[in-house]
Amino acid sequence: VPAGYPRDFERRLHLRDGRLVVIRPILPVDAPMLGQAIRAADRDTLRRRFLGGQPSVTPALLAHLTTVDYVRRFALAAADPETGQGVAIARYEPLDEGVAEVAVVVDPAWRRVGLATALVEMLAAAALDRGIHTFSAVYLAENRPVAALRALAGGPGRSLITQSIAEFAVALNRAQVTAAIRDLDEREHGLAGPAAVVPGRR
Ligand SMILES: CC(C)(COP(=O)(O)OP(=O)(O)OC[C@H]1O[C@@H](n2cnc3c(N)ncnc32)[C@H](O)[C@@H]1OP(=O)(O)O)[C@@H](O)C(=O)NCCC(=O)NCCS
Fold first, then answer.
1. How far is CA 140 from CA 32, 49, 109, 123, 170, in A?
2. Which residues, 6+ apart, have CB-to-CB distance to 58 below 8 Å?
3. Whole-angstrom Cα distance, residue 42 to residue 44?
4. For 196-200, which contacts have Cβ atoms below 8 Å and span 24 or more sequence positions?
5. Is 46 left (phi over 0), alpha (psi -120 to 50) or beta?
6. pLDDT tens for residues 32-54?
7. Strand partners of residue 13
8. 117 contacts 187 by C-beta, under 8 angstroms
9. Which residue's alpha carbon is nearest to atom 5 within ligand 1?
């Protein structure tokens, strides 16, 4: 694994519907999986994630998205442990001193069971330990799920809507983030079975 790979962000998690996912920091070996996911994604997902334009899926783009330093740039991948298929990716990218932009996408078959929430909480914990105090996101103003996710990043913040594009910034609240991670830990400790199986590291 690359230098600085933070193993402490590997976890198995039971989602609200009982399904299990494995979550780990992204790795360069995820590039083909990510390329396939972007090519297979439905138009609505691409429109919401990339605000209109579908990116051209070049090897350089995939390398950029999957090679991070786990400090200034951080990304998590979630996979179905039964198939090894990726089901979600969440990331932050630097915007300004202490400020990072968050983006998350969850496979439609895995939505509404708390996966994006868990990923954003884990990103927030990573960010706080890496000198980032504010999360920002840019999304289509009509995107109700993201409007709801805003609150999770640490309470009310500033938001601005210009020509249907919404932008928000919130100061991360360490107490709230710590409580959220404790809750994830408790859900994980409730799991029976062998230690985590993390795709790509078998
Ligand atoms: C936005 C997105 C990441 C949410 O993922 P998710 O795993 O379904 O989110 P969660 O299950 O953690 O839901 C968190 C909260 O968001 C809200 N929410 C999620 N989907 C919603 C929907 N379709 N309608 C209204 N509210 C919704 C709910 O309040 C939900 O909490 P609840 O289920 O307890 O009511 C997912 O819909 C997605 O990938 N969309 C396409 C890409 C995108 O828009 N990314 C964001 C911009 S970068």
1. 27, 9, 21, 21, 17
2. none
3. 6
4. 196/10, 196/11, 196/12, 196/22, 197/12, 197/22, 197/81, 198/10, 198/22, 198/24, 199/22, 199/79, 199/81, 199/84, 200/24, 200/27, 200/29, 200/30
5. alpha
6. 999 999 988 998 998 888 887 77
7. 21
8. no
9. 116
CA of 76 to the centre of ligand 1 (A): 17
Q: If you count them, how many residues does the chain have?
A: 202
pTM of the model: 0.91
Q: Which residue carries 């105090």 as its tokens?
A: 133
Closest CA to 110 of 45, 56, 190, 62: 45
| Residue in the structure block whose two tokens are 């103003």 | 141
Atom of ligand 1 nearest to the CA of 111: 8
CA of 145 to the centre of ligand 1 (A): 4
Phi, psi angle pair for 5, to nearest 5°: -60, 120
67-93 pLDDT tens trace: 999 999 999 999 999 999 999 999 999
Q: What local confidence, expressed as pLDDT, does residue 198 receive?
A: 44
Q: What is the pLDDT at residue 153?
A: 63
**147-176 pLDDT per residue, tens:** 777 766 666 667 788 878 888 898 999 999
Q: In whole angstroms, what is the distance from residue 153 CA to residue 157 CA?
A: 9
Residues with CB under 6 A from ligand 1: 45, 48-49, 103-106, 111-117, 139, 143-146, 148-149
116 C-alpha vs ligand 1 centroid, how far in Å? 7
